[in-house]
Amino acid sequence: MKKNINLFVVLFSLLSASLSGCLGGEDSDSSGYSGPIDLIVYYDTTSGMIETTVNNGQQGPTTGVEISFDYADTTSDDGNIVKITLNPDDGSTPIEADPSDNAVITYTWQTHGIFDVEMTAEDEAGNTRSTTVDIRVDMNIVWTDTNTNSASMTIDATPDCEDGLPLPDRITITSKVENPNTFLGTNSEVSWTLQNPEGTEIANNAGTIPNSGEETWDYTTRDIVSGNWGLNVEVTEGDNVNVENDVTIAYKEGLEGPVNPRQG
Questions:
Q1: Is the pLDDT assigned to residue 233 strictly greater than 70?
Q2: pLDDT mean over 106-126
């Protein structure tokens, strides 16, 4: 019986040793990393809002979400760090830099999504180590059309991250329609409709706007479908109008990773 127990212990030890090589590996995000690189990256924020405008069909200025990643304190026991890399997860080419020239990589996101950003360092011996952080990028669009009786705005709710997930949490709309003050002006009968990418009407509204008056429709949808949504404003009777749509595509707060600012 004692021999059988001893044999079992030996076999179990051999099996555990063999599995440790299969289940382990240099996972840079795990506490089990045993390689030579001490990867330290500082960043002050992990979320932001893109601001853009469209005026009478012409794309206006866009302010993206700019974040800097500071690798200056990253070191290796096997020599100097010779390359740092940032993969922004928006389909663009990863950015590489020589930390001896500049240990900070700055990137500006111009599209919305939850981006699984990968940061990598490589030493002169060829060792690499990576870690990731989620960046949440929302988008606000101010869209205008003047002196019109039919205004159609396209809202692209498709996340630009490489896996296309998660979808936005909500689309928030504030649509203001103004009936300009004109000589002998009349009322304007106006209707709003919101359609999802499948062509289904999600919501609608209607109103009568007097000469020199305005009316605003506020609406939020959380029933998000990826693709192009349509926000349409139609004048069914009366004077032409000016339309201003303020639309925000937003993701659930808290999906972004924690910040890691440099102290001091």
A1: yes
A2: 98
Query: CB-hemisphere CA count at 13 Å for 167?
Result: 12
> In the CATH scheme, what is the code of domain 37-137?
2.60.40.10
Per-residue pLDDT at 112: 98
Query: What is the architecture of the domain spanning 139-250?
Result: Sandwich (2.60)
Query: Model-level pTM greater than 0.85?
Result: yes
State which amino acid sits at residue 63.
Answer: T
Q: What pLDDT, on the 0 to 100 scale, is given for residue 212?
A: 92
Identify the CA nearest to 174 among candidates 194, 189, 196.
Answer: 194
Q: State the span(s) of the chain assigned CATH 2.60.120.20.
A: 139-250
Specify whether the CB–CB gap between 259 and 43 falls below 8 A. yes
**Rounded Cα–Cα distance for residues 53 and 125 (Å):** 48
Range list for CATH 2.60.40.10 in the chain: 37-137
Q: Which of 125, 170, 133 is nearest to 47 (CA)?
A: 133
